[in-house]
Amino acid sequence: MPELPEVETIKSELLPCVVGQSVTQITILDAKLVSGISIEEFCRRLIGQAIKSLERRGKYLIFHLADTQSLVMHLKMSGTLLLNPQGTGHYVRAIFHFSNGIRLLFRDPRRFGVIWLVADAESLVGRLGPEVLSEKFTPRVLVQTLSKHHIPIKAALVDQSLIAGIGNMYADEALFAAKIHPLKRADTLSLEETQNIYRSIREVLRSAINSKGASVDTYVRPGGQLGTAHFNFKAAHRGGKPCPVCGTPIQRILVRNRGSYFCPKCQPGTA
DNA sequence: CTTGGGACCTGGCTGC
DNA sequence: TGCAGCCAGGTCCCAA
């Protein structure tokens, strides 16, 4: 599942291959992939454009183009970007060719991913909250944000309009590390609990970036290698398995209709 | 306005 | 073996 560490890894590994290059040819294999404009217009406006820079914002990947348009991609759950893979393989929804001969494939079995070509990327990412790893996201910001919402802390952490970048699995990992029950209401947390969550979020995400993301499902790096962050998971996707701290079986519940894993002994609480 | 839950999508896995 | 049903989940949309 591409969350912040996965998209950040993709950005870093794509960057040296595409920045400074121009798009020479595009093949769209799934008409649903491009949002807002026709395939014809998409290709006409994009072909010949040089990639000026590559940026991650939340879980969005933004290719800034020389003419100030932006090519924006969201991989959603099963999207991956592959550089010069051997063969083509299944589930490829688009192929981009670059002036240096590189081919970039958008592979996406569940077909949730979306691509936009927009004049201003802010129209898409402007509603996101502060970047979770940026200097703007301070403990004080988290305290103020959480105090305004009477919703489960797990739901608050994955709400991109509150904080940009945290997804389902890393929210579970951060709450495990902070020993907070996922259903505890955001506005009922103590200052100390919130500060623990803040530290845990940053640590979990930085560690996952160092591990090049978590290959729990379809995620692979652009070169095809797996990430290794999932080997460090203590709660996420470990239903029924022993808690690494106390041995109690990790429990799975639904929070906002999303599978949520936690240790009922280390993260006591409420419901 | 706030909060909660379903829809979208499909491959892989489990259990009868 | 075959098949129904569950599970993965980011974001949008609608209902209470």
Notes on the protein architecture:
The protein is an alpha+beta fold and 271 residues long. The protein has two domains: 122 residues, MutM-like, N-terminal (N-terminal domain of MutM-like DNA repair proteins, Alpha-Beta Barrel); 124 residues, Helicase, Ruva Protein, domain 3, CATH 1.10.8. 27% of the residues lie in helices and 20% in strands. It is built from seven helices and ten strands. The strands form three sheets. It has a four-stranded antiparallel β-sheet, covered by helices on one side. Strands 2-3-4-8 form a four-stranded antiparallel β-sheet. A two-stranded antiparallel ribbon has the order 9-10. Helix 1 runs parallel beside helix 7 and helix 4 crosses helix 7. The mean pLDDT is 93. The chain binds a DNA duplex (16 and 16 nucleotides) through loops.
